[in-house]
């Protein structure tokens, strides 16, 4: 019985092509041999074995990753990624290599999927800007000027990163692949490891003559002035997105987005809850008892509201549609006026006498509250269930 994979197979020799053969030449050689040794055409057992070798050779040489392994002296179809070669293989470092090399081979190197060269042109990052606004501005909207410091496209090289009249050059160290590969012998067999090329930093190209303005990055940092339109009804913490106004990417890549984060300054009168506004107004005890009129300055104008006679502390007046406009849709929130009834703390003799006389007419003498059956007695009976 034939012993397969005893040595690294010559896949180029199987197809009868040279190592510099193009993809088209490999394909034509495969089709020619496949027609000659196909089992339907040639039933000879030796022809069937030859047909298997032809298919294996085409499988390897038509795959760039596997072909690179062959060019490095390995055999991608050998057990354990094995094949022949001296100890350590081409570029090897002995019969055993570090654990990281083995992991690279299976998960990060050519045997686990070559990544190829890194693109020089990449999308830019998003940027965020804090914008402080007054309540009136967030309520009704405003066009606010902003200043941003971001990377923008280099106008000298238009993002290419090269000086005028020059171009990128293919990296001679990695041949434009962006990574350097080596075949090494390990206790698992022969493995292929790949690492980014240190000469071109994994790009596969170098910049012999960088742009003098951006030093090859394709972008420069600058300060720009923009105007952002703030819609009516925005709230504190909301973000407004300005498409492609963020950072331009390396190599002149598409700019990211700019997010303007709204921060609403505290108002000296109103507090805001959603689209509703709240304020507190202090009224004298006499005004709460007799009733009065208050003039409230809203976000739009001044409003006169009635305080009914006998208003109690903690009462609330509601002014409909005097709050903040709804961000989405029509209409507005409400304005709530919370009333604090102020009790006088200092009375002169005449004021105290009049207040006592008033209390007598209502049967609310202070002395009576402490008597049996008075206020405290009624409270005690209420707790004891005698009320």
From TrEMBL:
Domain CR-type as annotated: residue spans: 141-223
| Residues annotated as binding Zn(2+) 2 | 171, 174, 197, 200
**Source organism superkingdom:** Bacteria
Needed cofactors, names only, are: Zn(2+)
Query: Where would I find the CXXCXGXG motif repeats?
Result: 154-161, 171-178, 197-204, 211-218
- Write out the ranges of the annotated region (Disordered): 73-94
Q: Which keywords label this protein?
A: Chaperone, Cytoplasm, DNA replication, Metal-binding, Repeat, Stress response, Zinc, Zinc-finger
* Subunit text: Homodimer.
- Task of the protein: Participates actively in the response to hyperosmotic and heat shock by preventing the aggregation of stress-denatured proteins and by disaggregating proteins, also in an autonomous, DnaK-independent fashion. Unfolded proteins bind initially to DnaJ; upon interaction with the DnaJ-bound protein, DnaK hydrolyzes its bound ATP, resulting in the formation of a stable complex. GrpE releases ADP from DnaK; ATP binding to DnaK triggers the release of the substrate protein, thus completing the reaction cycle.
Q: Which NCBIfam families match?
A: DnaJ_bact, PRK10767.1, PRK14278.1
Record note on domains = The J domain is necessary and sufficient to stimulate DnaK ATPase activity. Zinc center 1 plays an important role in the autonomous, DnaK-independent chaperone activity of DnaJ. Zinc center 2 is essential for interaction with DnaK and for DnaJ activity.
Q: Please identify the protein, giving its name as recorded.
A: Chaperone protein DnaJ
Provide the species name. Micromonospora citrea
């Amino acid at each position: 019985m034939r012993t397969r994979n005893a040595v690294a197979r010559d896949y180029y020799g199987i197809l009868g092509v040279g190592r510099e053969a193009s993809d088209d030449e490999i394909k034509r050689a495969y089709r020619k041999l496949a027609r000659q040794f196909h089992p339907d055409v040639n039933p000879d057992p030796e022809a069937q074995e030859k047909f298997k070798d032809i298919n294996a050779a085409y499988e390897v040489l038509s795959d760039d990753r596997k072909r690179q392994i062959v060019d490095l002296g390995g055999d991608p179809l050998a057990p354990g990624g094995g094949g022949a070669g001296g100890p350590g293989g081409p570029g090897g470092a002995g019969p055993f290599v570090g654990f990281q090399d083995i992991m690279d081979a299976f998960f990060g190197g050519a045997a686990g999927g070559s990544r190829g060269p890194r693109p020089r042109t990449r999308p830019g990052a998003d940027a965020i800007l804090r914008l402080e606004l007054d309540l009136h501005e967030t309520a009704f909207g405003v066009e606010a000027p902003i200043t941003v410091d971001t990377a923008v496209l280099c106008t000298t090289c238009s993002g290419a990163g090269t000086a005028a009249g020059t171009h990128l050059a293919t990296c001679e160290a990695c041949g434009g692949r962006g990574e350097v590969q080596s075949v090494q012998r390990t206790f698992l067999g022969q493995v292929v490891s790949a690492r980014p090329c240190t000469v071109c930093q994994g790009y596969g190209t170098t910049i012999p003559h960088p742009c003098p303005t951006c030093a090859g990055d394709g972008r420069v940092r600058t300060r720009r002035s923009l105007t952002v339109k703030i819609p009516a009804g925005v709230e504190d913490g909301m973000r407004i997105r300005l498409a492609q106004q963020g950072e331009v990417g390396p190599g002149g890549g598409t700019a990211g987005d700019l997010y303007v984060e709204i921060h609403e300054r505290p108002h000296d009168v109103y507090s805001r809850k959603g689209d509703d506004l709240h304020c507190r107004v202090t009224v004298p005890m006499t005004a709460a008892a007799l009733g009065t009129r208050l003039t409230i300055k809203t976000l739009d104008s001044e409003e006169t509201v009635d305080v009914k006679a006998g208003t109690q502390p903690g009462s609330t007046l509601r002014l409909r549609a005097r709050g903040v406009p709804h961000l989405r849709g029509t209409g507005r929130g409400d304005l709530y006026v919370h009333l604090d009834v102020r009790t006088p703390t200092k009375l002169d003799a005449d004021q105290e006498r009049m207040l006592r006389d008033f209390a007598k007419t209502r049967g609310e003498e202070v002395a009576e509250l402490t008597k049996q059956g008075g206020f405290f007695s009624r409270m005690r009976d209420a707790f004891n269930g005698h009320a």
